[in-house]
Write a structure and sequence with these properties.
The chain has 195 residues and is mainly beta. It contains three helices and 13 strands. It has helices at 10-16, 24-39, 168-171, and strands at residues 53-56, 59-65, 76-83, 91-94, 98-104, 107-112, 114-118, 122-126, 131-135, 140-143, 148-153, 159-166, 177-181. Strands 1-2-3-12-5-10 form a six-stranded antiparallel β-sheet. The radius of gyration is 23 Å and the shape is extended.
């Protein structure tokens, strides 16, 4: 059904063209051009000695792919997690889902599933009793989005697990990532979450 009444008044029409002072679009085009030029020089192959080790509140990790490593990969971060004999990570949660692949070791994950509802703001509630998932060499582990989780090595040898997270959720504005408790021996690196 159409009418002769305009959707926008003449006043709004004149306001729409006033105060032209932004150059966001131009900046986006220039940034894209610069990115594509720099992208050509990014790494296709990351050698083992180019993968930095890091002590984190979640334990010792070796970055395989990270957004700060100048690689052509632009969507995921990958690291190897080292778990001492009878050791464990801290407990963390992040809005991106996580997948992991066990290289060596045996143990289990504890997952505190989350439920949420949207009122005036998001309301998050985590289960107080975790689900336990056992794993061993060659196993795949899935951690749902924002599920609080901890990984435990039950052997007398070091365990190694490759962990993969997407950068996409962060890129769209949901950079929600909390370290709820530190791994034993890494307490000096822990910054408790806000609120």
């Amino acid at each position: 059904m159409s009418t002769d009444t305009p959707f926008v008044s003449d006043v709004e029409r004149s306001r729409a063209r006033s105060n032209i002072n932004a150059d966001f679009y131009k900046e986006a085009l220039e940034a894209s051009k610069k990115f594509r030029k720099e992208y050509l020089d990014r790494l296709n192959v990351v050698k083992h000695d180019q993968m930095p080790m890091e002590r984190t509140p979640d334990g010792l990790i070796k970055h395989i792919i990270n957004e700060k490593m100048n690689t052509k990969e632009c969507a995921i971060d990958i690291y190897m997690q080292f778990l001492d004999a009878q050791g464990a990570t801290g407990t963390s949660r992040h809005l991106t889902e996580e997948i992991a692949f066990v290289i060596e070791g045996k143990g289990y994950d504890l997952h505190y599933d989350v439920k949420f509802r949207c009122e005036e703001a998001f309301v998050w509630e985590w289960e107080t009793t975790p689900k336990k998932y056992e794993w061993g060499p060659g196993d795949f582990i899935y951690v749902p989005p924002y599920c609080a989780h901890k990984r435990v090595n039950t052997t007398d040898q070091e365990a190694r697990v490759v962990v993969i997270n997407s950068r996409m959720v962060k890129a769209i504005g949901f950079d929600w990532f909390d370290q709820l408790e530190p791994a034993k021996g890494f307490e000096d690196l822990w910054v408790p979450p806000a609120g």
